[in-house]
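User: two proteins, same treatment. go.

Assistant:
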Amino acid sequence: MDFYVVLVTVPDSKTANTIGQALVSEGLAKCVNITASVKSIFHWEGKVQEEEELLLIIKAKKANFQSLMSKVRGLHPYSIPEIIALPIVDGSEDYLGWLNS
């Protein structure tokens, strides 16, 4: 089974909780960690921007990624949300077994 860690930045805790709860309750992700504030520096609309955001660290099956991405887009307030999938190349057998369950 192939798994991803998916990174999504959000503007506030309400959005983080809404997305996290939806992904886990609908079975699109096994676990969502919500980090405290992160500072994002990015180029947007012709200039460099700085924002305080939260980061979602989502663990999910690769097979669920397209549905997960669609759900995030539907719940996210940004016009172009960050949704980046990184493959999990190794991990503890117990944890990967739990992800697969």
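Protein 2:
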Amino acid sequence: MNRKELVAAVADATSLEQKTVDAVLRGLQSTLEDAASKGEKVSVPGFFALSVGQRAAREGRNPATGATIQIPAAKTVKFSPGSALKEAANK
């Protein structure tokens, strides 16, 4: 499902206009990006939890040449599905 299909599906399920759903989705994205940039955890019980984690620097290999390369440390966003989302996936 892409963004356009998601907006259409939510609009159908909620009887809202697609432009309203799209605005809400853009607002949600902006809010999640802001929370991630601040290192905050976002949790919606039963649905999902997002948190920022730290990935340590490590040594890797260039798959094309086999040469050893240094991969720098980086922050990453962790997504954990909630219980309702897990149950829906396992039906």
